[in-house]
Amino acid sequence: MGSVRILIVLLAGVSAAAAQDAPRGNWQTPGSIQKPGEIQQPRGTWQTPGEIQKAGEIQKPGEIRQPRGTWQTPGEIPKAGEIQKPGEIQQPRGTWQTPGEIQRADEIQQPKGPWIKPGEIQVPKGIEAVRVTTTGCENRLSVFADALFDFDKANLRPDAEATLKAALPEIAKATGRPAYVEGHTDGKGTDAYNMKLSEARGRTVRDWLGANGAIPAATPIKASGKRVPIAPNTTPDGRDDPEGRQKNRRVEIVFETCKS
Asked: Could you tell me the CATH number of the domain that includes residue 243?
C-alpha cells in the first residue's frame, strides 16, 4: 500500500511539471489578431489611391491627399470669396470699357472739356482774366477783352458775365474815384477802325458795370485803339505775336487816387 502511494505522488509531480512547461494560451490562427509583442497588422480599411478622404479622417502615411473643392476651368472668373488655386491666372474683375465711353467713379477719368489745338492761345476767364496795377495817381483794373468779346465784336459773349462778376470784388476794393473806362485793341487793322472798336467795347463794359452798381452809369468812355500797347504785337524778327496781341486787347477801369 505504501508503494502505491509513492507511485501516485510521483505521477502527480510529473504531470504538474509537464503542465508547467507547456505553452500557455491558444495558438494564433494565421490572419487573426496578434497578441502583444507581435507585429501589429494595420487596422481599419485601406484607402484606394485617388479617393477623397472623408472629413475628420486622418490621412495615412505615404498617401497623396487629393485637392478639395472644385477645379476652376481656365478663363472662368472666381466667385466672390473663392480662393484662387495656385498656378491659375486671376481674371480681371469688372467690365471692360469701350473706347470713347465715359468711365465710372474709381476708374481713370478722361480729360473733360475741349482740347486746345497746338498753337492756340488759351483765353483766361473769371478772376484769371482780371489784372490790377497801380502807377502814380492811378489804379487800373484791366480785363482781357478775349474773355468778354468774340473777334471783331463789341457785344458781350454769353460767358462774359462770369468774368465781369469776378471783377466786382476787385472794383469794390479799389481806392480812388472812377475816372473813366478805357478800351484797347491790338495792332492789327487801321487806326480809325481800332479807335471805333475800342470805344464800343469800353461802352459795353461801362454799361454792364453801371447796371450792376459797380461804377456810376455816367462814367466817361475813352478810346485808345492800338495806341497804348502793353506788349509787343510782333516778335523781334517781325513775325506775328499772338500772345502779345492778346494782352493788348483789353478794357480798363481807371481810378484816380490823387484827386479828391
From this structure: 3.30.1330.60
